[in-house]
Amino acid sequence: MKSRAAWLGAGLAALVVGASACQDQDRSRQERTDNSPGHQVEQAQAQSEKAFDDARDAQKEASSQQREAARAQEDLQHKQQELQEAQAKAQKEAQEAQASQQQAQARTQQAQSVAQQAQASALAAQRQAQQNFATQQQQASNDSAAANQRIADQSAQQQQAANQNAATQQAAIAQNSQAPSAQNSQEQQISGDVLSASAQEVLVSQAGEPRLRLKVGPSTQVQVDGRAASAADIQEGAQVRASYRTDTSSGEPQALRIDATSRAQPAAPAPAESGESSPGAR
Fold first, then answer.
1. Where does the record place the region Disordered (predicted)?
2. What pTM was computed for the model?
3. Which phi and psi (to 5°) does residue 239 adopt?
4. 29 in a domain, yes or no?
5. CA-CA distance, 188 to 256, in Å (whole number)?
6. Alpha carbon 31 to chain centroid distance?
7. Structural domain of 188
8. Do 202 and 221 meet the contact criterion of CB atoms below 8 Å apart?
């Protein structure tokens, strides 16, 4: 409304200025023309019409300028509204970006925390695995040492038992050597398994127990699986059937003949010969 009043005032001022200019022109005309009343009326009427035309033109110009001002005002308001909307949108996007950044930072921190916990758990598991492995190795070493000790103890016990049995057998043979020479010179036989064999002697066992240690001499006949051989060729565990005599001077059993059969080729049992007896049967 203020803009419209301003334009109206400007139009009226233009009308006044136009009327004053017309009056000046009329006065100059009056000086050049005669001062008849009819001529003056015509001039006044013309001036009045011109003044009204100028006023209408000024009014139109004022209305046009007023419309342009209104459109400019509307454009300004529209631009201001667009600016406010753009600012609001930019502020909203900035807030959303800030929220997204905060969420990303929170997720990054959470991921780092989870990674650190996983790394700590992995290190703890590795240390525990190493401790368990070391414990298992120590236990295995202890078990191996204990097993070796048990084996050594068993071997020592077996060797001690073998030595005791051999000593008992030797004592029995020595005791028997004091009997009449006719009995000592009698040929005897024994069957069993070979515990050990060498070129000088063969240790025979019965029922898994050392029974007799036969001395092997140059006159001893040895066969292994039906072939002539030496006592050293007899394998441990082979089945053996031997004939022997007890030496009257040393009291040791001297092997006369040894027939050994490997376990892969078991020999048929031989018929009992007259005078056959076991060393324990005296």
1. 20-193, 206-282
2. 0.32
3. -85, 140
4. no
5. 9
6. 121
7. 177-261
8. no
